[in-house]
Design a protein that fits this description.
It is a single chain. The chain is mostly helical and 432 residues long. It has two domains: 18-219, no CATH class; 239-419, no CATH class. The chain is 84% helix and 0% strand. The chain is built from 15 helices and no strands.
Length: 432
């Protein structure tokens, strides 16, 4: 860094790339990565390979969940710390955060890898025994990803470009494999691991090229414990929602059978993709939100103004999914019609989920990780009960209603911690 400034500064305004550019890159990366998985699954439906679809969709879904647990909230914690650092110290803070996160995540990855292998050999079917061992290296490699560093430096778009590689590798493998589940499991699990190996290597190479190499930085046990505490709060805020979706898969299997699970996941991932797009937009604007919010001075207008683009997109996407899913259900037949019904039913949850997540992100921006975690856990418990009860009674419609209930519960718990002080101050000034 010849001038003492990171080389990426020339691509930004005031040393920081615009949030809209990062959001566009994240959305484009997701569209390519997740879109490739979607197209591969569509090909399986066209071939009538519903058993392979159900096996892959279930295992890939739980693999992504496990990878999220390994991340242990590190992207948000690291991004927040780096965003609040002074310009001259930002690179050094980024290095320390990266190695603290890597140490914590590697320990989690080792424990989860062992648990996954035990399950594969003691309780899994043929596909599980083939897929899980081949996918375990992805867990270990993901412990060294630099997503939080990119987010904190205002370069989240680059992490999106590298993150799509694991999806593309899995999609290519899904199209190429045959119908033998055991053989397919080995190929698909290996594709996931290969994709993560390339992604992590690419991230570190890009950081080195930009003058922010992640050379080894000393960390202490106390540093790692502090990082893990904050990360756990972030993880507990996002994990319950992920667990609720996987629980819905279990309920769906009990109500609709294994073939129904494949179609449910296929249609559900379209609505989930819309939610993920909104998450990318919020993520790209998170550093700016952190610098805007101040304890005691947060108002609903300030929060949603900071995420104005995400809020508007949530309305557009929810309406679009409702119309498109309804049209598919009415105009198409067979498996694609059922998937369209799933999209239409879960479209409203895209809107309610986006509003709740905006509140959660604002609370995290203020460092109130425990409040968000408590809200998410309570929402998950309500979601479990509602999914089991309403799902058994009303099928897919019941699962859609249960999801909206979880969002409402989460928003009601988070709201007081954000706005009570600000509203109280406003009342005092008026009465005076």
């Amino acid at each position: 860094m010849r001038s003492g400034l990171p080389r990426w500064s020339k691509f930004s305004v005031g040393g920081r790339p615009r949030g809209s550019t990062n959001a566009a890159l994240l959305i484009a990366s997701f569209a390519i990565g997740q879109g490739s998985i979607f197209l591969a699954q569509t090909w399986l439906i066209h071939r009538g390979a519903l058993d392979l679809l159900a096996a892959f969709a279930t295992h890939f879904s739980f693999a992504i969940l496990t990878l999220g647990i390994v991340d242990f909230g590190a992207p948000v914690v690291a991004a927040r710390r780096i965003s609040l650092a002074e310009d001259g110290a930002r690179v050094e803070v980024a290095r320390r955060c990266y190695w603290q996160a890597s140490a914590v995540r590697l320990g989690i990855a080792l424990l989860l890898s062992l648990a996954a292998l035990v399950y594969a050999w003691l309780g899994g079917d043929g596909f599980s025994r083939a897929y899980i061992p081949a996918a375990v290296p992805a867990l270990l490699l993901s412990a060294f990803n630099a997503t939080g560093v990119f987010d904190g430096l205002g370069l989240s778009g680059i992490s999106g470009l590298t993150g799509m590689l694991a999806y593309i590798a899995s999609a290519i493998a899904l199209v190429a494999v045959g119908t033998n589940l055991a053989d397919a499991g080995v190929v698909l699990g290996s594709a996931l691991s290969l994709g993560y190996a390339i992604a992590v290597g690419a991230q570190l190479a890009v950081l080195w090229r930009l003058g922010c190499s992640m050379r080894l930085a000393p960390v202490t046990g106390a540093d790692c414990r502090t990082f893990a505490r904050e990360g756990l709060g972030v993880l507990l805020a996002s994990l319950p929602g992920q667990l609720s979706f996987r629980f819905q898969i279990v309920v769906c299997a009990a109500v609709l059978g294994q073939a129904g699970v494949g179609l449910f996941i296929y249609g559900r991932q379209i609505a989930a993709a819309a939610s993920q797009v909104l998450e990318f937009v919020r993520r790209a604007h998170f550093p700016a939100m952190v610098r805007t919010l101040r304890p005691g001075g947060v108002t609903p207008r300030l929060v949603f103004e900071a995420q104005r683009l995400a809020s508007l997109l949530a309305i557009v996407l929810a309406l679009g999914l409702m119309l498109a899913g309804g049209a598919c259900f009415l105009l198409l037949g067979g498996a694609f019609a059922q998937s369209g019904l799933v999209v239409a039913l879960f479209s409203f949850g895209v809107l309610t989920g986006a509003l709740t997540q905006t509140l959660a992100q604002a609370a995290q921006g203020l460092g109130r990780f425990r409040v968000v975690a408590a809200a998410a856990v309570l929402a998950m418990l309500v979601g479990f009960a509602a999914s089991a009860g309403l799902g058994a009674l009303f099928g897919l419609g019941g699962l859609a209603v249960a999801e909206v209930l979880t969002h409402v519960v989460g928003a009601l718990v988070i709201r007081p911690s954000l706005f009570r002080r600000a509203e109280g101050r406003k009342t005092v000034r008026v009465s005076a």
